[in-house]
Amino acid sequence: MASRSKPKRGAGASLFWDLLTFDRLMTNSVIHLIYWAGLGVIALGAFGTIGAAVGVALREESLMGLMLAIPVLVAGLLVVGALILLWRSFCEFYVAIFRLSDDLHVLRQQADAERVAPPRPAAPRPAPPQT
Is the CB of residue 50 less than 8 Å from the CB of residue 76? Predict the structure, then answer.
């Protein structure tokens, strides 16, 4: 297999080329951005839950409004906590998949290098002892 020589490029051009091709995966930084964006969306849901609980409490001016608002708040925050755990596990799953892909890529390169390299001569075996 002929080896490709990569032309020298600047840092910006190299980053742009890496985005266009799949020679180097950029999953770590992308997954971090997606993770924090997802946490931001979940935080908006938490604020919405708190707002809904306060809205229920303010709409009903009696004790019944407060008794309705507390379960809404608790259930909403439990759902938000479960969403945070699910989102974290989802992102870790994708990181694990991409790391497995990187490891398989390295193993494939090693196998290709061994296939191209000339075989080493086998060491001579000693003669069995005669009895």
Answer: yes
| pLDDT tens per residue across span 85-100 | 999 999 999 888 888 8
Q: Give, in order, the Cα–Cα distances in Å from 27 to each of 19, 93, 100, 107.
A: 11, 12, 12, 19
Residue 39, pLDDT above cutoff 70: yes
Across 36-50, 68-82, 101-115, least confident range = 101-115
CA distance 110 to 114: 6
CA 24/CA 89 separation, integer angstroms: 24
The alpha carbon of 89 is separated from its chain's Cα centroid by a whole number of angstroms, namely 9
63/67 Cα distance (integer angstroms): 6
- In the numeric block, the tokens 């608790």 are attached to 74
